[in-house]
UniProtKB/TrEMBL annotation:
Recorded family membership: Belongs to the thioredoxin family.
Organism of derivation: Geomobilimonas luticola
Highest rank taxon of the organism: Bacteria
Keywords tagged on the record: Disulfide bond, Electron transport, Redox-active center, Transport
The protein, known as: Thioredoxin
Gene3D superfamilies attached to this UniProt entry: Glutaredoxin
């Protein structure tokens, strides 16, 4: 079960929720059929809980929202991209350890 602190972003609300956010935003691009995406889901949830108030965390289902992943060159999933002030700060592709996701976040804090 996903944490209630993890938002759902899509083509319709990405600009408002991510690009115009007042805090850094960690976005997990995923799909329901993606096993590595399921593997990192608990890590995304944990980060959302631990960094609540400092970093906004959300997911984009690439099957339901094809425009946004295309705009950011998402070719493989899971892809986790960190945005700050409307710009890409860094990204990782694949099921990576929590420490690697935290290192991504620390670049923006």
């Amino acid at each position: 079960m996903a944490s209630e602190k993890v938002g759902t972003f899509g083509d319709d609300n990405f600009d408002t929720e991510v690009l115009q956010a007042g805090v850094p935003v960690l976005v997990d691009f995923w799909a329901t059929w993606c096993a590595p995406c399921k593997a990192i889901a608990p890590l995304i949830d944990a980060i959302a809980e631990e960094y609540d108030g400092k970093v906004k965390v959300g997911k984009v289902n690439v099957d339901d929202n094809p425009a946004t992943p295309g705009k950011y060159g998402v070719r493989g999933i899971p892809t986790v991209i960190l945005f700050k002030d409307g710009k890409v700060v860094d990204q990782v592709v694949g099921a990576v350890p929590k420490a690697q996701l935290e290192a991504l976040i620390k670049k923006s804090l």
